[in-house]
Design goal:
- The structure holds 2 protein chains of 2 kinds.
- By secondary structure, chain A is an alpha+beta fold.
- Chain A contains 11 helices and 8 strands.
- Chain B contains 11 helices and 9 strands.
- Classes of the chains: A alpha+beta, B alpha+beta.
- Chains A and B meet through helix 7, helix 8, helix 9 and helix 11 of A and helix 6, strand 9, helix 7, helix 9 and helix 11 of B.
């Protein structure tokens, strides 16, 4: 028998999360891409962590509460339905942390995860370079052997959160081999030259990074030198799929969109209704995916289908809100949401790259 | 929370798939009106939803869903949904229904006609004054000998439509709306099967057809179109699965004679979930048909290629029991009431 019911423990967890959020969610914070907004978002993360809600799926010893995948999905539904702030620690908790869990050493996990859960450190990702975007393996930033560690040289770009973050992580070349010459490195940003880059909203949501012999000890390398591509691809498939974008935020957006469109022309309201059921589809698809992951299955390239779907759904929803509101959108959160949604089909592997992955690795079309 | 088909449900689909692979190959679509019907009857397919007291298995719609998808994948002709799904809701006591010896067609309210009514023993005719969502709809059942059929042209040569007039009929005492909802979900499952087949044959063709010295499937324009079909199917199928569970959950509450509020609490709005499924499946199949034809090019535009059967089935079923636009409007109306609760 198919069991669609949530367990008693899951229902209790939902109630606890809903109750805590109702008491603690702040009024809209300033953008996390301003100095004061960044600090306000860090303080919010610390408050979340004090209730062990900043990274619920992590083991307790790292600051989580060992929640199941389904409980994490419940948390996300409640989090976004409550209108809670965006996650300034997102790169760390949803991208770097799963990588450390899967490929890091116990020492690395103990050294970095508890601080990440409290946002003592905020992590920036450093993948792209000026000449290596979609073709990431063409990157040329390098790590050179030094006494007990490595020295980093080169340039990274579009590094999200780097304007104010304390640390970063990314791939560096340790030999000439295209894929097998790449190594996964964490680094402190204090010795890196950071040039903030303003995004469409005028605020520095990402930055260029210049490395001029920045030293990192061996303990900052994740996995073996030369194994970085494999490790990063494993992380980006979680970025594309489950961990970066749980359904919760799209469900919350869809509910708000339906409310916004209630008095609108039926043609526009039909489009809102369609978005609402598409968000439902993403939720149900994710429940199924969660079940497969829990059963030990690898999701692999099929995660690209989720990335295409949620990013384009998010853009459709915010685009429709812009149509409904017109220029009045500027006085609402919908404009910022629209600008953020526009980035969805670009980051974490453009949707063109995703469609090629789907065609070649899911459908089996020739390269 | 365990949102997946059970091993039993998948095994049933496997059985149906094997039967149809052997007895309903594409060549059979050109020679007969009811290929594999008796073979499916022999494995018990038409008794899946029939109550045990009428010799059926009394299963839920969700139990038959993967098997129904297989009937779409095979482009199985005949009044399959009407006999295997609608009839157990409306005519559960009819003798020999479970054995497949009695075939049933349905003239749905607002539909173009009754599919394969000329092959049916009983025809359910929904009254003209049925309300839009069918909740107050009435239906009558007409014996084949009392029915006069007038053929109506349709898009699908293997799903012939008829207008039905009759001299005598019997009113049905069971509610029409739940049966029509089950029909929409079952048809949506068939559409998912049609879409998967269209994608499979398109991928196979794109891998072998060469132009400019390369398989056309190596070209990004072709790849991305087919990737979109895969995404469309992947995110329509869970809505169909959920709608079947919602239909069954509502039926369980109704059968237990609990009140309407209990049904509302269990499934906030089953009609909304059914419409989401049918709209998404119709659109996924339409997209798959469009992409399949474009991938095949001129050869796909011929009567000679079997592809045309699946194209026609996508067009006929995407409209059957309400097309995407009609169901989208129903979702909008349901949401306008302000109840945004989700099932599960």
């Amino acid at each position: 028998m198919v069991d669609l019911d949530f367990t008693r423990a899951e229902l209790d967890f939902r109630a606890e999360v809903r109750g805590w959020l109702a008491e603690h969610v702040p009024d809209r914070l300033p953008s996390m891409d301003t100095p004061e907004g960044f600090e306000a978002h860090r303080a919010w993360e610390a408050l979340l962590a004090s209730a062990r809600l900043s990274a619920v799926s992590w083991p307790e010893e790292y600051g989580g509460r060992g929640a199941s995948l389904v409980e994490w999905l419940i948390f996300e539904e409640e989090y976004w339905a409550a209108g809670a702030p965006g996650r300034v620690s997102q790169n760390g908790i949803f991208l770097l942390a799963p990588t450390l869990m899967a490929f890091g050493t116990e020492e690395q996990r103990r050294a970095w995860l508890p601080g990440m859960a409290r946002a003592d450190q905020v992590w920036a990702q450093a993948w792209s370079e000026p000449e290596a975007g979609s073709d990431l393996a063409a990157l040329t930033s390098r790590a050179e052997r030094a006494d007990g560690g490595w020295r980093l040289y080169g340039q990274k770009t579009w590094s999200s959160r780097a304007a104010y973050a304390s640390h970063g992580f990314g791939l560096f070349r340790t030999s000439g081999a295209r894929h097998k010459g790449l190594t996964y490195v964490m680094f402190p940003l204090e010795d890196v030259t950071v040039r903030p880059v303003a995004q469409l909203d005028g605020l520095p949501g990402f930055a260029e990074l210049f490395f001029d012999g920045v030293y990192v000890p061996d303990a900052m390398v994740i996995g073996e030198p030369g194994d970085g591509w494999r490790i990063a691809m494993s992380a980006t498939s979680s970025e594309r799929g489950l961990t970066l974008r749980s359904p919760g935020r799209f469900l919350a957006t869809a509910d708000r969109l339906v409310a916004l469109a209630r008095e609108a022309d039926p043609a526009l309201a039909d489009r809102a209704a369609r978005c609402w059921s598409d968000a439902e589809a993403y939720r149900l698809h994710t429940f199924h995916t969660a079940r497969r992951i829990t059963a030990g299955e690898e999701i692999g390239p099929a995660s690209s289908m989720g990335k295409v779907f949620w990013s384009e759904l998010d853009l459709r929803m915010h685009g429709l809100a812009m149509e409904l509101l017109g220029e009045r959108a500027g006085a609402t959160p919908w404009l910022d949401g629209f600008l953020f949604a526009l980035a969805g089909p670009i980051y974490a592997g453009t949707n063109e790259i995703q469609r090629t992955i789907i065609a070649e690795r899911v459908l089996g079309l020739p390269r | 929370m365990d949102f997946a088909f059970t091993p039993d449900q998948l095994a049933l689909a496997e059985t149906v798939r094997d039967v149809l692979t052997e007895h309903c190959p594409p060549s059979a679509l050109r020679t007969g009106r009811l290929p594999a019907w008796d073979r499916l009857a022999a494995v018990g397919f038409f008794g899946l939803l029939v109550p045990p007291e009428a010799d059926g298995l009394g299963l839920g719609l969700v139990d038959a869903l993967p098997a129904l998808e297989e009937t779409g994948r095979a482009c199985l002709p005949g009044p399959v949904v009407e006999t295997a799904v609608v009839a157990p809701y409306l005519l559960p006591g009819v003798p020999k229904l479970a054995s497949g010896a009695v075939r049933v067609s349905v003239a749905p309210p607002g539909g173009a006609g009754a599919p394969d009514a000329d092959l049916a023993d009983l025809i359910v005719v929904a009254s003209e004054d049925s309300s839009r969502n069918g909740n107050r709809g009435e239906a009558r059942v007409v014996g084949r000998e009392a029915a006069r059929l007038r053929p109506v042209p349709g898009p699908d040569p293997c799903r012939r439509l008829s207008e039905v007039s009759y001299t005598e009929s019997t009113p049905l005492d069971r509610p029409l709306a739940p049966a029509l909802r089950a029909a929409a979900v079952a048809t949506a499952a068939q559409l998912i099967g049609v879409a998967r087949r269209l994608l499979d044959v398109s991928v196979a063709y794109a891998r072998t057809r060469r132009q400019f010295g390369a398989p056309i499937g190596s070209f990004q324009a072709v790849k991305h179109r087919l990737a979109d079909v895969a995404v469309g199917i992947a995110f329509a199928a869970p809505l169909v699965h959920r709608a079947a569970l919602a239909v069954d959950a509502e039926a369980a509450v109704r059968d237990a004679d609990r009140d309407v509020s209990a049904a509302r609490a269990a499934v906030p709005d089953v009609g909304r979930d059914v419409s989401a499924a049918k709209a998404a499946a119709s659109e996924a199949a339409d997209l798959a048909a469009r992409a399949a034809l474009q991938t095949h090019g001129a050869i796909g535009y011929t009567e000679e290629l079997d592809l045309r059967f699946w194209l026609a089935r996508a067009w006929s079923l995407s409209a059957a029991y309400g097309g995407a636009a009609e169901h989208r409007a129903r979702i909008r109306e349901a949401l306008a009431g302000g109840d945004l609760r989700r099932y599960p």
